């Protein structure tokens, strides 16, 4: 019985297919990166060219075939460092989204609740309270008259500037 081959050592055909699909999925995520992100990921030139070609393709069948080629090229590289980079981009994105939601909530509270102004100034003492009150008043007037949201956007920019300055100072303190 010792002559029987050990089938458990080699991955099954289904497992190999799942692995190839996973590599192709990583390739798909790579096509979604912007130029700066793409440049920060270490990739062989042939893979980078294939990804850029796939990004430019609009036809479904041609893109599908190109992504299969990308998957084939991905088998020649170690996907672990690429996966780490992609996960890092996703976490940065999640942090930025959370910060934008935080800014939006402050803006809406400032417009809807007069008490929120004192809370905001307590949270951000470096804020110019006179400019803040003027922006809020102009935003409310803008909404009532159906005007373009010029002051609404300016209020967002002011809050974002204060929030970003706070996060930079927090990062510097660490």
Q: Your description of this structure?
A:
Helix 1 packs across helix 3, helix 1 crosses helix 4 and helix 5 crosses helix 8. The chain has 8 helices and no strands. The protein has 2 domains: 65 residues, Diphtheria Toxin Repressor, domain 2, CATH 1.10.60.30; 82 residues, Diphtheria Toxin Repressor, domain 2 (Orthogonal Bundle), CATH 1.10.60. The chain is mainly α and 174 residues long. The mean pLDDT is 86.
Can I get a quick summary?
The protein has 174 residues and is mainly alpha-helical. The chain contains eight helices and no strands.
Question: How would the blueprint of this fold be written?
Answer:
Elements: H1 13-31, H2 35-40, H3 45-56, H4 60-74, H5 79-112, H6 116-123, H7 129-145, H8 150-173
Helix pairs in contact: 1-3, 1-4, 1-5, 3-4, 5-8, 7-8
Strand content: under 5%
- As a percent range, the share of helical residues equals over 70%
Major β-sheet, in short?
A: none
Order of helices and strands: HHHHHHHH
Category by helix and strand content? mainly alpha
Average residue-wise pLDDT: 86
Shape: elongated
CATH architecture of the largest domain: Orthogonal Bundle
Query: What is the β-strand count?
Result: 0
CATH topology of the largest domain, by name, is Diphtheria Toxin Repressor, domain 2
Q: Total number of helical segments?
A: 8
Q: What's the CATH H-level homologous superfamily of the largest domain?
A: PSPTO4464-like domains
Give the domain tally.
2
Radius of gyration: 26 Å
CATH class membership of the largest domain: Mainly Alpha
């Amino acid at each position: 019985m010792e002559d029987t081959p050990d089938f458990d050592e080699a991955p099954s055909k289904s497992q190999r297919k799942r692995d190839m699909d996973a590599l192709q999925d990583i390739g798909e995520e790579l096509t979604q990166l912007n130029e700066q992100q793409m440049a920060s990921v270490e990739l062989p030139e042939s893979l980078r060219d294939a990804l850029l070609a796939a990004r430019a393709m609009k036809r479904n069948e041609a893109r599908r075939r190109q992504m299969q080629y990308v998957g084939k090229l991905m088998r020649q590289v170690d996907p672990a460092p690429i996966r780490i980079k992609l996960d890092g981009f996703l976490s940065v994105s999640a942090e930025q989204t959370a910060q934008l939601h935080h800014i939006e909530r402050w803006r809406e509270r400032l417009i809807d609740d007069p008490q929120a102004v004192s809370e905001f100034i307590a949270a951000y003492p470096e804020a110019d309270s006179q400019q803040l009150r003027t922006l809020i008043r102009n935003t409310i007037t803008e909404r009532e008259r159906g005007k373009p949201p010029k002051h609404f956007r300016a209020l967002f920019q002011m809050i974002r500037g204060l929030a970003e300055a706070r996060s930079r100072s927090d990062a510097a303190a660490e």
